[in-house]
Design goal:
With 116 residues, the chain is mainly alpha-helical. It has 4 helices and no strands. The model has no long low-confidence stretch (mean pLDDT 90).
Amino acid sequence: MSMFTRFSPLRALRDLRMWLASRKPYEVGFLALSIAVTWTVILVFSSDTNVAPEYVEPDVIFVQSYAENRTDAEIIAQQKIDLPKEQARKKAIEDAQEKRRQEFKKIDDKLKSWGI
């Protein structure tokens, strides 16, 4: 705590002024320029962080509860009902993946034509 009792803002400013006075003019100029560039970069990047994220609806997964005393025939019948739904879901995912793959292939072909 003894360090804080000896701290005085006026003494700190006087010390800074004396240090700056002992510097050559071009050193003070480069100091000011470096401070300005640093704060410009910080402000530019901090202004980009205020972009609100796009709302994505939560993916809710519902769990179906089954009776404990189901027979094998009931289970097989339910699987036959659920099979087309599952196949349609998998087909939709595969189609979306293939579409995305084609988009990337198109971009890759364009970059190759440019020599990149």
